[in-house]
Specification:
By secondary structure, this protein is α/β, with parallel strands linked by helices. It is 45% helix and 12% strand. α9 packs antiparallel against α10. The longest helix is centred in the last third of the chain and has 26 residues.
């Protein structure tokens, strides 16, 4: 049976971690291969309305006890410019607290962790670490700026092998891909304290009608966005440009209506009025 509130949905992902910072500290510590003693979540005050927004960011920005800035984000689909977007965002975060007259050595160490539900790189590795290096020597220019990508479809271990290897980072990556009740039971059976707590949180969310509605709205918007981007690609429009031309919007809307997407969702994606959609 498919879950409504599933960890692979970004709104659920953020709710799990912002409401349970101990679980976030556990995952981040495993991702960075270090113990996280304390962290402060800086953006846990998202209003319910923003869960329905087509392009809203649902990242988690934290600051550690040592002043390190860490951004954690889950992405379900590649809009075609994700590599460039990741570099831009991490660089912007790195320089965000730089003030005039401040010594560059005082810039906080910055790490962006991206959990991807799609493949981004040609390598078979499920983990890729990006940092600035000198091309000719391979020497690291700085370790104060870093992006870590986890491509979950490439993760090689299944539940049975995880029981043998006890790969706790693998526990989390498997949990992030859960979409059904059966898969949730499987990760629960790993008998890991933190994962069991995360499973319990997901079960609680699925019993909460308000959270179920938020998750449904977010998934509807995500599916609609996916369809509109596919249509844009078919029409030869770059994903970095707003889909603003009326004739293209009409074609996108027709396809979405064919897929029986809700009218209010199509309105948000295309910008067309309800009357214009009814005329189709």
């Amino acid at each position: 049976m498919e879950l409504v509130c599933k960890p692979k949905l970004d709104v659920v992902f953020k709710a799990i971690f912002t409401e349970n910072p101990d679980l976030l500290a556990d995952f981040v510590g495993l991702a960075l291969e270090t113990e996280i003693e304390d962290l402060q979540i800086l953006n846990n005050d998202i209003l319910p309305e923003s869960y329905n927004e087509k392009f809203s960011r649902l990242d988690i920005l934290v600051k550690t006890k040592g002043g390190e800035k860490i951004n954690v984000e889950l992405q379900n689909s590649n809009k075609g410019n994700f590599k460039e977007r990741s570099v831009f965002y991490c660089s912007k975060l790195y320089t965000s607290d730089l003030q005039s007259g401040k010594d560059y050595s005082e810039i906080a160490k910055t790490v962006c962790i991206n959990i991807l539900q799609f493949n981004l790189f040609d390598s078979e590795n499920y983990r890729s670490t990006v940092l600035p290096i000198i091309k000719e020597t391979g020497e690291t220019l700085t370790d104060r700026w870093k992006i870590i990508f986890f491509e979950t479809p490439k993760f090689p271990e299944d539940i049975e092998s995880l029981k043998v290897t006890k790969n706790r980072l693998g526990y989390w990556l498997t949990f992030f891909s859960v979409g059904t009740e059966e898969a949730l039971v499987n990760v629960d059976n790993l008998n890991d304290k933190e994962i069991k707590k995360a499973v319990s949180v997901v079960r609680h969310m699925n019993a909460d009608e308000r959270m179920r509605e938020i998750a449904r709205n977010r998934e509807d918007a995500w599916l609609a966005e996916k369809l509109s981007l596919a249509e844009a690609k078919k029409e030869g429009i770059t994903t970095g440009i707003e889909l603003g031309e009326q004739n293209t919007m009409l074609r996108v809307a027709k396809n979405m209506l064919t897929e029986r997407i809700a009218i209010d969702v199509i309105e948000k994606v295309t910008g067309l009025t309800q009357n214009e959609l009814l005329s189709l």
